[in-house]
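ingest -> fold -> write
write: protein_1
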Amino acid sequence: MDRKNELLEELIKEIKSKEEFYAIKDQLFKRGIETLLNAEMTLHLGYPKNQKATERRANSRNGTTPKVVKTSKGEVQVDIPRDRSGDFDIAKLRAAEKSRKCADVSRSRPHLRMQSGDPMWRRMAPH
């Protein structure tokens, strides 16, 4: 088993309730979106975060702005990275939000629905 699966197994073993599952799911979604946005910022700027500059750059990171992303499962606050020139575009996130497809796992993959009566949830519940 690779390291990622081992970490996932460790995390799953710690889940003791439906509420814990949903809290972890929400944090994974939030951090996943933020990681993707930071990767997009790295591509936009052309250098990784915290890289020491060897020359003067025309544009650089400038913190984050909190934004509430609406999904079919509720709202999630995500920290959107900013750049100094203000031309980093999060149009894809806006478009996904408007179409209500952003993180809508239950509609696109109904077999992943996690409800208390689902057999998968019962397998995860503590015995």
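write: protein_2
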Amino acid sequence: MDQQAMPAAPVPSGKRTSLWIILVVAILLLAAAAVFGVKIFLNRQEKGSSLLVQQAIREIKADLDQYIQTNGSLEGFDLVDDAEDAVKSREINAKWDFEVVPLTQADLDQLAAGGKTDVLPYRLILATANSEAGRLAGRMIWWEGDNKRYHGFGIDDLTEPAVEEEESAPSESAYVQKSRSTEAQTGIRAMSTAYNVYVQTNGTAEGYSVDQALRDARLGDATLKHWSFSVEGNPPRKFIAISTADSPSGAGKQVWYDKDDEKFHGYGVDNAALPKTPASTGAPAQPVSTVAVSPAIYTVGPYTDVCIRQTPSLSGKVLVTVNSGDRLQGLGERTVKNDTVTLKGLKYSGSWIKVSTASGVTGWIHSATLR
């Protein structure tokens, strides 16, 4: 007699619920383990970076002590360049800025008055991560002469050396400024890269806003909270960051990158003030001497986003941009005075020529961009 297969008994609903709970708990445990593992990996990576920087500081200290032993003082020792020359690792030298903070003469006199004569003439050897260090930018590690110990990133909870009173305060504030300026410089580099990518893709910066550039740059929330970003020119010739009220350095600090000299300026760099454009000063435009030339047809050289300006000056308002191969009608006028421009990393001196585009826009273009 054939036996018929019996149907499988249904799983009780209570048991199914228990299985789901076990599965969810297992997933949560795996996620927690993954997060914990990533944290351990990052901590080990940061610890490794910290140890490499401490080794670099030891190299600087050995070189510094040898110099003092040979020369009797720090005189003639460049507290930044000579310090960085002592670091053997190129990678560390590229990602970290080093400097020696000396004791002032007043400090040495005070120590001598207290009977302490056998002291080193410097109080700190400081390393600050620059924008090349990525997410570590602005972190500090230092060797402190007072207690002969290392402090800072990857070592203890200290984030910057303590600021002392009187003579030592100016040098302390200088490297604190340098550290905080690094955050702005990192943001400016990222925004500049976003503009470059856009121009390479679209052939022009026209229509590309600062807000869009900041989104493409993917700056961190802290950077956007501490700094307000803007540009001058189209395509930009200056990338500017101004600190907000939420910044540890207070509101109104200015850091900018000038594409004409390819350098950073301002707070924590050279402490220069951001030059005002003629339009922002409110001063009337000065007359420009020009001479008549024969009208001619000009062709734009091998450049993109060449500016045609309202006035014959690098600070003149940009009316439109033209590109390699575009033809322009010369209007028989050029400036007497020459201006220097930077094209593809090279500096050229030349006059401004009045031209008209095919669409009828009339303005001034620098002669170095034409052929």
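write: annotation protein_2
Helices lie at 13-71, 81-85, 90-95, 105-113, 168-202, 210-217, 221-226, 278-281.
Residues 331 and 355 are 5 Å apart (CA to CA).
pipeline exit 0
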